[in-house]
């Protein structure tokens, strides 16, 4: 698989503040890569550097194996932080300006406006748009010349639930076309729902990265209970794939090794003549996992 | 030229642009029309203001003061790109930083063409209406003042553009531009020897449209050391190149 974006020890210092600290990672073609981290963790600064608007203070990056150029920029559609348009121009005229800059076909404009559901609002000025519409217009602008890669910085920030659903749905539809998407977000659940890979940033440092399944939802918790807890506890001691278990009042909380599921547990219990009265899979809360990741190496 | 076409897309529907340009047109028209009522030592200027061929020197001298409005317009157009963050988006979308600055410089050139042509039209209108001599040679005799005026407009707006890219905020940039052109540099002129300060930017630009009748004043008092318009063209072009280069370097080496 081809590497779309490659970062090598990329750093940015603002005065004494190390906003991004020797960040190295690579994004493969076709993946949906999430940059996850709290506000101020360096996500936007990182994207700003690879998009050529923030000067790195150290390190380097490559797009498609080459340094950034007009050609590489035309293969990438991006929105950084906020939708950036002329407030007094209509949606359509704003996209005409973007199409000029990207040397894109002006015939695409109406098509893209339809795609993001703004076809009927093409003659409304940008300042008259709701935040969700602005965000969708920015997506239309980013998609204008059918780029291979989309870079999205907090695309659902500040939207109401319906707006979030609309934008997310749009991202999924775009991803289904086989495009590579790089998505910065501070919302764990967004990254988990949308992304295939994730890099966790904190205070400018890379804390963890890899496929979302490995990083975010490795070990599920199970809650079980039965008429008699004693035999259950005895059995749990002997089962090799139980990482840990603890009894709470009238139920038991346990964690399984990777690769095992509640099915395995239920089968083994039944084989020993134990009938569980309750078997509940509880995903560890994402927030808890996130804190675990960021505190591990802190 | 593609850059200029895109700039037109942004400017044409922009109300602020038309308001400032409208004020410029109306004020210039008004001042040129009423200045014949100005009385100097008991004598009304009258229609002598509109006599060819001296009209071109007088008109360009008066119009120079109104370039201030065009300078402010340029500052507004440049700082808008920062406050709308569209300058970022342009660079993200594939423009080089030099192109971003060049696009604005083309607007400066366009506005200079506009103000020069507007002044040509006004000169022909007032002159053909009021001037006593309307011969071909009288009308075109000193029309070269218009070309000096063009260089001056470009220079003045290039200075405004430089301040806009330097400061990025419209209010502060306008203040800095005014402070430099109206206060700081004039104070420096007082401190410095005439042989040096005649090469300073504002002095060079204003030398392109000298005070009408300067020759007569010079005979009565100590002559000014200012450059003649023809001699001021070269240093003015030099300043324009420097300001353009300075703006490009500013944008190239700062975060957007």
User: Percentage of helical residues of chain B?
Assistant: over 70%
Biggest interface, CB < 8 A: A-B, 29 and 25 residues
Number of helices of chain A: 11
* Model regions low in confidence, pLDDT < 50 over at least 5 residues of chain B: none
Structural class of chain B: mainly alpha
The figure for the number of domains of chain A is 2
N- to C-terminal distance of chain A: 33 Å
| Main pleated sheet of chain A | 6 strands, mixed
| Percentage beta strand of chain B | under 5%
**Alpha-beta content class of chain A:** alpha/beta
Q: Encode the helix/strand succession of chain B as letters.
A: HHEEHHHHHHHHHH
The shape of chain B, in one word, is globular
Query: What is the radius of gyration of chain A computed over CA atoms, rounded to a whole number of angstroms?
Result: 24 Å
Taken in chain order, the helices and strands of chain A follow as: EEEHEHEHHHEHEHEEHEHEEHEH
Supply the number of helical segments of chain B: 12
Q: Give the total of domains of chain B.
A: 1
Cα(first) to Cα(last) distance of chain B is 24 Å
Count of DSSP strands of chain B:
2
Class of the largest domain in chain A in CATH?
Answer: Alpha Beta
């Amino acid at each position: 698989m081809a590497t779309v974006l490659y970062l090598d020890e990329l750093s940015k210092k603002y005065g004494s503040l190390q906003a991004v600290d020797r960040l190295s990672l690579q994004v493969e073609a076709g993946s949906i890569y999430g940059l996850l981290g709290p506000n101020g963790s360096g996500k936007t600064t990182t994207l700003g550097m690879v998009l050529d608007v923030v000067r790195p203070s150290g390190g380097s990056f490559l797009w498609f194996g080459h340094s950034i150029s007009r050609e590489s920029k035309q293969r990438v559609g991006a929105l950084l932080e906020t939708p950036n348009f002329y407030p007094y121009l209509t949606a359509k005229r704003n996209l005409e300006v973007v199409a000029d800059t990207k040397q894109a076909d002006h015939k695409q404009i109406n098509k893209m406006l339809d795609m993001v559901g703004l076809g009927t609002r093409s003659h409304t000025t940008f300042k008259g748009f709701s935040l969700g519409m602005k965000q969708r217009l920015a997506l239309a602008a980013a998609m204008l010349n059918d780029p291979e890669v989309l870079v999205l910085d907090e695309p659902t920030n500040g939207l109401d639930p319906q707006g979030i659903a609309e934008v997310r749905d749009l991202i999924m539809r775009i991803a289904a076309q086989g495009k590579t998407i790089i998505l910065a977000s501070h919302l764990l659940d967004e990254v988990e729902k949308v992304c295939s890979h994730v890099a966790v940033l904190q205070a400018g440092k890379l804390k963890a990265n890899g496929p979302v399944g490995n990083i975010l939802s490795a070990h599920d918790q199970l809650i079980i209970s039965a008429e008699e807890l004693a035999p259950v506890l005895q059995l749990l001691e002997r089962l090799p794939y139980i990482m840990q278990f603890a009894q709470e009042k009238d139920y038991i909380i346990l964690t399984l090794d990777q690769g095992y599921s509640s099915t395995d547990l239920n089968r083994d219990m039944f084989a020993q003549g134990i009938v569980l009265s309750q078997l509940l899979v509880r995903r560890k809360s994402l927030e808890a996992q996130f804190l675990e990741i960021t505190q591990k190496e802190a | 030229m593609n850059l200029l076409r895109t700039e037109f897309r942004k400017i044409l529907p922009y109300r602020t642009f038309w308001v400032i340009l409208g004020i410029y047109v109306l004020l210039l028209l008004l001042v040129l029309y009423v200045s014949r009522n100005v009385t100097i030592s008991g004598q009304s200027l009258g229609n002598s203001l509109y006599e060819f061929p001296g009209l071109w020197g007088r008109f360009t001298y008066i119009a120079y003061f109104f370039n201030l409005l065009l300078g402010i317009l340029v500052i507004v157009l440049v700082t808008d790109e920062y406050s709308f963050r569209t300058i970022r988006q342009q660079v993200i979308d594939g423009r080089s930083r030099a192109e971003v600055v060049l696009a604005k410089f083309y607007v400066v050139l366009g506005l200079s063409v506009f103000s020069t042509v507007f002044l040509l039209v006004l000169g022909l209108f007032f002159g053909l209406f009021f001037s006593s001599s309307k011969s071909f040679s009288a009308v075109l005799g000193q029309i070269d003042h218009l070309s000096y005026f063009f260089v001056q407009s470009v220079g003045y707006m290039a200075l405004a553009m430089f301040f806009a890219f330097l400061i990025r905020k419209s209010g502060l940039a306008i203040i800095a531009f005014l402070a430099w052109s109206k206060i700081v540099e004039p104070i420096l002129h007082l401190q410095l020897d005439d042989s040096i300060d005649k090469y300073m930017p504002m002095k060079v630009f204003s030398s392109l449209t000298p005070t009408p009748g300067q020759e007569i004043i010079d005979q009565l008092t100590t002559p000014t050391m200012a450059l003649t318009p023809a001699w001021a063209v070269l240093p003015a072009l030099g300043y324009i190149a420097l300001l353009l280069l300075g703006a490009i370097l500013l944008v190239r080496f700062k975060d957007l």
